[in-house]
Design goal:
With about 220 residues, the protein is α/β, with parallel strands linked by helices. It is about 55% helix and about 10% strand. The chain has a five-stranded parallel sheet with strand order 2-1-3-4-5, with helices on both faces.
Length: about 220
């Protein structure tokens, strides 16, 4: 079995090459690669690079859209394979996830949602620009074990604190998992939440929480 070519995966997204991204994803599935690593170290690196190029003004809307299409093409191949490889058919726990109100960033949150679902979690993805009340209502409705909130802007990260308080005020006690560029472990501890800085770590933290373990 050949080692996964993470650089080629990244490049396929940066270049917006949908066909290449799909082909690389299919090869990874066929060769039995660790698909979580394929996503995080390969394709996700590409979409992050696209986002950076957009913010730096080197990429414009057509390049941004094409990069996202390449990422979607790869995930269309990988997500079913990841789901079929899930270690157990049972659902480990219920997760409500979304990007907070005022923030339209969706790719990172969607990646975490995909990873959690592939690892046996029942995932309720609320999308982006989600109000605190919507998080609370869905958590109550489904009996969420974890509520995961992403914020990619410093101006919206305060909503994560509001969410922790709102859940407590509603008499709910799910674990709260936060992420996004401005978030940190220190911030999570300050607001009474848990932190993950990438999709693989989010899965690890979520699993530890439902199993009652503490990760270093």
């Amino acid at each position: 079995m050949d080692a996964p070519n993470f650089q080629a995966m990244k490049d396929s997204v940066v270049q917006g090459d949908v066909a290449a991204a799909k082909a690389l994803a299919e090869r990874s599935v066929q060769q039995g690669h660790d698909l979580l690593s394929v996503v995080e170290q390969g394709f996700a690196e590409g979409i992050r690079a696209v986002g950076e190029l957009w913010e730096q003004g080197e990429y414009f809307l057509p390049e941004l859209v094409q990069g996202a299409e390449a990422m979607k093409g790869a995930m269309a191949v990988l997500q079913p394979a990841m789901a079929s490889r899930a270690s157990s058919a049972r659902r480990e726990a219920r997760v409500v996830i979304g990007t907070v109100r005022g923030d339209m960033h969706d790719i990172g949150k969607s990646l975490v949602a995909t990873m959690l679902a592939a690892n046996g979690f029942e995932v309720h993805d609320l999308g982006c620009d989600v109000a605190v009340e919507s998080f609370v209502d869905r958590a109550k409705q489904v009996g969420a074990d974890i509520v995961a909130a992403s914020a990619l802007l410093t101006t919206t990260m305060g909503v994560q604190r509001d969410l922790v308080r709102a859940l407590a005020s509603a008499g709910l006690s799910p674990h709260v998992l936060v992420g996004g560029a401005p978030a940190s472990d220190a911030w999570a501890r300050e607001i009474g939440a848990h932190f993950a800085d990438n999709a693989i770590r989010a899965v690890q933290v979520a699993q530890s929480l439902v199993q009652g373990k503490v990760l270093p």
